[in-house]
Write a structure and sequence with these properties.
The protein has about 500 residues and is of the alpha/beta class. It has 17 helices and 22 strands.
Amino acid sequence: MGKTNTTERLAKLRKLMKNLNVVPEAIQAFIVPTDDAHQNEYIAAADRRREYISGFTGSAGTAVITEHYAALWTDGRYFLQAQDQLDSNWVLVKDRLPDSPTFGQWLNGKLPVGSVVGADPTTVSCTTWDTLVKDLSGVGNRLVPVTQNLVDTVWADRPEHPNGSVCVLDVKYTGKDWKDKVADVRLKMAEKKADYLVVTALDEIAWLLNLRGSDIEFNPVFFAYVIVGTDSLMLFLNDNKTTASVKEHLYLAGAAADEMDTDMKVELFPYDKIFEKLDALIHQNTDRKVWVAPESSFAVCHRVPNASILKAASPITLMKSIKNAVELDGMYQAHVRDGVALAEFFAWMEKEVPKGNVTELSAAAKLEEIRSSQENYVSLSFDTISGSGPNGAIIHYKPTLESDRPVTVNDMFLLDSGSQYLDGTTDVTRTVHFGQPSDYQRECFTLVLKGNLMLAMAKFPEKTTGQRLDSFARHAMWGVGLDYGHGTGHGVGSFLNVHEGALYCIC
């Protein structure tokens, strides 16, 4: 994980901050989040703007660049990685620690009063934008939208935006027809007296319509927007991404298309027409209530007037996280097959590691080879974290040719990996030693085991939050002054994103 020289990239970006052909007015700082236009955790290569400008490759973080400073915020999973990857142009701010400033606090301390801060409104959530506005305006600074992303202009060899085709996920895997899901969403809309629901999260769109794609590596999603109306359904998806089977599935073509009820007929629009259509819906009737999740981009929220917007969590988030009987069975079957692959892999490791023939990369490659032979296998669900010795302490570590270490009988070996199957998604972590672990390693392993057992046996009342349950897992470690700098658990999609919202166990 070497350092990238970002001097030239930062110089070009800072020059653009004063170019009135690119920005609406001269800005004194520019914010580059990890997020894409859909606030995905994992993003396409073309959207890795923060990675390009900073050199930091972790999945979470925000870069802030002023005329004289550059800082990167990331959480405890990536402190070690960021320290290894950031060059001398950058300062690491350890996010969520008591003494660490927020973006707004840091900017207010670095910029003169009356400064202007810019950000691409499609890459900042509505919640984050509102917080930044409040923080900056408190001392007389302003936040303005920059619709032409400055990193895109600097990034000469930026990859093409993905344009993979979309496929149908059969009801034998989803357990519910997409029309029934839309009907359930409309019931939730009626409870909120909403006329429209704007769906921007890609996994929610895929789940709602029983479709899957390949636009983001390891995540079977596709770039689209959906607007659910009380009697209409609009899908913003480029036509060249749809196949004949998708059009038949959505009743856009085929013998049954003309017989479909009007309120379930899907209207297909080009992906980039979402803002134009939102404007049209509002202007047709200003009394309409438009439901938008606060996690959606500011660009989407900003199109809806305050009098018309209903900001609330998307109802699909919870619907998707509560698995039906078919999805539960699929998850069980996927884990059985995945467990078979892992058993075969560790048997191979026990044989080969003592010979000195295994490295982090070769171990990851062997596991993928074994997994790919399983029924219903589609892909990995994330980059395999194969860490030997000290590399195992780097949370979300990804071995490279430069960092690749041998797996030996003298070191701990951490494996965090998973797969996408048509009937389920897996995410499994195992820490092993192929020799004789030290007493301290045994102690730490046992403390983690105690935490897992305490959490598994915990009894708790309804509506207990994951944040409270998290302390059960840490109790034994806290007793001896130890902790870990990341969450304990998270929701998992059903042949969807390996990290799924609504359900988290994290302090």
